[in-house]
Amino acid sequence: MILLRPSLVLLALTLAAPWQVPDTDPRPLARRLAGPLSSMWAAGHWVRFDMQVHNSEMERAYLTADRALQLDPWPSAGWIRLAEHLWFIRASAEREPDPSRRAHWFAAGLLVLNEGIERSGSPGEVALVKARMTGLYLLPLVQDGAVQWPGGATALKQTSQAAYQVARDFGLDPASGLDTGPQHDQHEH
């Protein structure tokens, strides 16, 4: 009589099974295997980013944020954090009184959010932040003339509406920000 260890039997059944268990994690295998380490390294970079911003070392801070996002692009929080910094710190009237320079920082924040929509694990969440930031924060500044925006208020309204639609497409309710549908908010990279 041959005695088989249960782990070998389970392995043999798994390999010989005519069906495959679907992989629900859409991240690439290498990123999943390195995930805990890359997430920890990215978290360390975000601490450095905060210290560099505090010390007004902005160029170094942006390189550090870029490294953090390269290490761990999956969490939407990193994309949102950098965009909010660009919008609420760099584009603030106190820091940047020139309306055209303010527009530069707002545009940089939108580029960060656009990349976050493409690369994060929660594109709907990033899109919802983009929609709210453009429609509720930037649009009134453009309408009041405090910021010069290419295409004016009309272009900004279209950007906001398109971002709200992306959020809806990923199952988020723009009115509440809550997930209302099936789990579409993760996509493959």
Keywords:
189 residues
Description of the structure:
By secondary structure, this protein is an all-alpha fold. It has a domain at 73-169. Helix content is 67%, strand content 0%. It has seven helices and no strands. The chain has helices at residues 6-16, 29-54, 58-71, 76-90, 99-119, 123-143, 152-169. Helix 4 (76-90) runs antiparallel to helix 5, helix 5 runs antiparallel to helix 6 (123-143) and helix 6 (123-143) runs antiparallel to helix 7 (152-169). The longest helix is centred in the N-terminal third of the chain and has 26 residues, at 29-54. It is flat, with a radius of gyration of 22 Å. The protein starts with 5 loop residues before the first helix and ends in a 20-residue tail after the last helix.
Briefly summarize what is shown.
By secondary structure, the chain is mostly helical. It has helices at 6-16, 29-54, 58-71, 76-90, 99-119, 123-143, 152-169.
Mean pLDDT: 83
Q: What is the element string, with H for helices and E for strands? A: HHHHHHH
Tally of contiguous helical segments: 7
Taken as a percent bin, the fraction of beta residues is: under 5%
Structural category: mainly alpha
SS elements, strand count: 0
Summarize the amount of helix as a percent range.
55-70%
Rg calculated over all Cα atoms: 22 Å
Shape: flat
Distance between the first and last residues' Cα: 49 Å
